[in-house]
Write a structure and sequence with these properties.
Length: about 290
Amino acid sequence: MSKQFLWKVKESSKVKLKDYSPEYRDDHIERDVAEEQLQKLSKELGELQELMTAAQKNSLLMILQGMDTSGKDGTIRHVLSAVNPQGCTVHSFKEPSLEELQHDFLWRIHQHTPPLGVFGVFNRSHYEDVLVVRVHNLVPEKKWQKRYQSINAFEELLADSGTIILKFFLHISKDEQAKRLRAREDEPEKSWKLNVGDWKERAYWDDYQEAYEDALSKCSTESAPWYIVPANHKWYRNMAIAQTLVETMQQYKDEWRKDLLARGEKELVALKQIHAEQSYESKIRK
Ligand code: AMP
Ligand code: MG
């Protein structure tokens, strides 16, 4: 396996976000090289998606989480540029509706998990139920504490049903967030993203970091790993995520190909039989 540009969280490890620099980038990767690399990886991702769609054996679920301005939308736009929209679903999870609140917290999530063959993206996810909900005491601690276990069981169910799960935490620094929020105020073309709520949430930065540390520590498993993405440099973030997606999907490539070939051969045998029958019938009719 080639070099990893981000950090995969080991199962049952205790994550301290201070140990991971949001500024990190591999010394050997310059911006122009990374952008070129992203083009290649995007193309490969498109080809792998096509194979996955045809094989109908797996689906892929990419979960994006991160503080406001961490780049969830930008990642979707840049990393999935060559993915066929026909085989892709993107769902953004906002504050739950009254109806959603009247169900268990995974009810609204389960409806949007990708079916076999589909590349699904979650922009925020069920993790909000142990992040914003925890930080703002939206439910009692006793309730959110149990959710980590429910999340692990839920993701195991998805994985057992053929879903390849990758979870990316876009790790930015508090200074970088301030820079990005200010840019929205200063640059008219970014002003549509302005949201006073973002400045208010920023006051809870440390609580969020702690909540993220717990989610990353308790919910990274072999079948649904968390990746910490150094995300202060957008170009580096995009390349690192694209590379991880491609490497993960490549592990299934041979299996998908083999299945497709076997399916093709089966169809060919059936076709030959039909041709033989048709030519026999036309002979006896003569
Ligand atoms: P944005 O991603 O900027 O469109 O914002 C969506 C907002 O919805 C964020 O402030 C999230 O914290 C909030 N949100 C998402 N899921 C939940 C949830 N389960 N409970 C409460 N708020 C949520
Ligand atoms: Mg926002």
